[in-house]
Amino acid sequence: MGLNFSFIKSLHKASPVAFGAVDIFNDEIIYSSGHAEELLGYTKDELKKHSRNQFESIVHPEDLDKSREAINSLINSDVGEIVECTLRIRKSDGKYLSLFIRDIVFERDTKDAPLKFTTIVQDVSDVVELEEKLNEKLEIIRKISYKNSHELRAPVANIIGLLSIMKEDNFKTEFNAKIFHHLEETVTRLDNIIHDINNLSN
Known about the structure:
This protein has 202 residues and is an alpha+beta fold. It folds into two domains: 5-123, PAS domain (Beta-Lactamase, 2-Layer Sandwich); 131-201. It has helices spanning 5-14, 35-40, 44-50, 64-75, 125-169, 174-201, and strands at residues 18-23, 28-32, 83-90, 96-108, 114-123. A five-stranded antiparallel sheet has the order 2-1-5-4-3, sandwiched between helices. Strand 3 (83-90) and strand 4 form a beta hairpin. Helix 5 (125-169) packs antiparallel against helix 6. The longest helix has 45 residues, at 125-169.
């Protein structure tokens, strides 16, 4: 038994991603699973209005070039080619969601120019936020590594150099020799720790 439209529509409704179809040249949504409206907080009519000019009215200003590039890639795509991008889209409350979008042309004219495409949209805001936090932590580690390499390593290297000079002069007493030996071991361990931290942060 073939799958009817009602079954496909219910499948779309149950999916955590939004499905849609867009008419490229008439610049409007021709099908929406409904999840996009729920996700962004717009009515179907509002979302259809925003679909004019490829949703540029709700794309984050900093992502407009990326959005236009994706549309150009879609228009020039080969048969069966999927175009992907992640864009920040403004919700009805003014906040932005990071959406992972996958588009593919499903109808072309006699000259193979694209007429309509299907789009699958997934909210990846949590993943993007986590990535940003990780990048912040990595930046902190890089700064610590820089301080470690340039600010901490230099004085330790100076101490090692002084110890070498002192060693060449020899210590006259057994007590001084023991102090020197202990100091030399301590500085060497500190130098090894600094090297280990540098290796871990590279």
